[in-house]
Amino acid sequence: MSSCYILSFTLLLCLLSSPSSFSASPPNSTAETDILRPLKEIQKLKLIRKQLQKINKPAIKTIQSSDGDTIDCVPSHNQPAFDNPLLQGQRPMDPPDMPKGYSQENESHENFQLWSLTGEFCPEGTIPIRRTTEQDMLRASSVRRFGRKIRRVRRDSSSNGHEHAVGYVSGSQYYGAKASINVWTPRVNSQYEFSLSQIWIIAGSFADDLNTIEAGWQISPELYGDTYPRFFTYWTSDAYQTTGCYNLLCSGFVQTNNRIAIGAAISPVSSYKGGQFDISLLIWKDPKHGHWWLQFGSGTLVGYWPVSLFTHLKEHGNMVQFGGEIVNTRPGGSHTSTQMGSGHFAGEGFGKASYFRNLQMVDWDNTLIPISNLRVLADHPNCYDIRGGVNRVWGNYFYYGGPGKNSKCP
Description:
Layout: H1 2-17, H2 30-55, E1 61-64, E2 70-75, E3 126-130, H3 134-139, E4 162-174, E5 176-182, E6 195-203, E7 211-219, H4 221-224, E8 230-236, E9 254-255, E10 278-285, E11 292-296, E12 300-305, E13 317-327, E14 354-362, E15 368-370, E16 375-378, E17 385-391, E18 395-401
Antiparallel strand pairs: 1-2, 2-3, 4-13, 4-16, 5-10, 5-14, 6-7, 6-13, 7-8, 9-12, 10-11, 11-12, 14-15, 14-18, 17-18
Helix pairs in contact: 1-2
């Protein structure tokens, strides 16, 4: 790749230095456009390399993953979060008190990523960061917005091709949420679509001041260059306009764990009529300092979103959502065949449909409590649907998902 740019740049210099270079063509001709194109490509590559210097921090150890990822072990005080002017000079906070009522029974094990299956982890005092490459950024629709969601979201609309099947609660004050999320490898139709399953903590309005905290798993060929399900985080404080990003691709989320790489591939995954695998996630607001912490599985703290990042979420959330989301670009004028969840409808049940189980909330007293007023909603139930329930083992749960394009979803 780089040699092509060097060749183009050399050719450009030769053409510009020759008096007769443009003599055969008038201004703004096709020939002049062809000459200027390599210059734009060179400028884009320079911008990419400048961005990569911000994202990829010097590592004291590097680990190669079987899926092709490079994991850099970066000193925790040098991570991207501390580039934020609001956080400069700080160091990661000490762990907070767990919510009352939290139990580690039946939780997932923390060794759930491909890069760590060999048993190799980053040293204490460092955090694992998935290295971002030039190829990652060249796939992006916008270099300057790399790692960010492109659109302004509305919960009551599937505009811009985003479709949901979610369980949600609203109308109260929410200080966190917990769920176990079934992991699959749904088919994604194109590079410009994705499929994800996550928890949203939401405050503000669905206009310019929306605050969200998000975590779950996603398949995004544009962001990662493959179709592995990957553990991810996201945040915004202005409805996805100028703030926030996926994972550690901007200054924001502070990671404290040396064994989990945000953005790394998840393993194992569930199989149709076979073994089922889920990841347990807990997001809650530390009553003492106000930061929003993220925990995976059996007591493994991943890190936190500093309270200073937010406006409405400085206090609490006013809505929590659980569920799936896909992007539908309507290829060929019809609905996408990108799958949500397992790619099968909720009615197929356990072992076939994807699920969320043990849904809980964190209340004002930092206590985990069952959800009593869960509502479910599917934007296009003939494409992706959802069915809720309650039982003694799973507590509040729902099945959700679907195949996308089918005879009832043209």
